[in-house]
Amino acid sequence: SPEMAAESALDCVARGYTAIKFDPAGPYTMRGGHMPAMTDISQSVAFCKAIRAAVGDKADLLFGTHGQFTTAGAIRLGNAIAPYSPLWYEEPIPPDAVEQMAAVARAVPIPVATGERLTTKAEFAPVLRSGAAAILQPALGRVGGIWEAKKIAAMAEVYNAQIAPHLYAGPVEWAANIHLATSIPNILMCECIETPFHDQLIKSTIKVEDGFITAPTAAGLGIEVDEALARAHPYTGNGLHLEMQDAPCDYVNGNAFEGGAPSVKS
């Protein structure tokens, strides 16, 4: 719902956040990059329009995708949402197609962000050389840790690119992201995922206040993990938080991106 997304964005702005991430852009399908349906483009435009109208210039829009589109499809969608001036267009095509990502970056007037699925500086170097992205999103749980991420950040400096470490793997990765952020000059922002369980899991050792994170000063990553709480809540499901769906893009009935919060099927 664009209206509910706008309401949520306003709540974030009221708590000091300066950027809002959302991803309404249609199905994440195992069948590879697809051309977005017109209904998907209209839905994405509606989200951007509603959120921009709600937050004005108080917050940036972070438009997320998960490599769903063909190059041509990504260009169509990107140009449709460009009037709302998103800060980034995240992983619009599969991230291993570097030259095609660069084609999207040249054709769309929104900074392209990518990197959550890339590993080590060797995979980030071609992205920078080709101009495929202005914002890199290394996931510290995957890229090789803080030290490797610092090398990637140094490479990005040479190409006038910024770093926004990706957050997907919970509060331990978040703590690592924060340490990286405090140690590099070209940090753009640190993503946050606020859940009461995550907060309890690290015993509230990191807090977001008025949109800012105060870096921890304790030893190591600066957090204290509640091991008993973790053991008391093992994951017993067989589905991932974000899974490619088997069904292809539906050009007749429209699509709903349900990667983060799947609806209950009757």
Word description of this protein:
With 266 residues, the chain is α/β, with parallel strands linked by helices. The protein has a domain at 1-111: TIM Barrel (Alpha-Beta Barrel). It has 10 helices and 8 strands. The chain has helices spanning 2-14, 38-55, 71-81, 98-107, 120-130, 140-143, 145-158, 171-182, 196-201, 227-232; strands at residues 19-22, 60-64, 88-90, 112-114, 135-136, 162-163, 208-209, 212-213. A 6-stranded parallel beta sheet has the order 1-2-3-4-5-6. Strands 7-8 form a two-stranded antiparallel sheet. The mean pLDDT is 92.
Short description:
The chain has 266 residues and is an alpha/beta fold. The chain has 10 helices and 8 strands.
Assess the beta-strand content as a share of residues: 5-15%
- Catalogue the unreliable spans: none
**Helix content, binned percent:** 25-40%
Whole-number average pLDDT?
Answer: 92
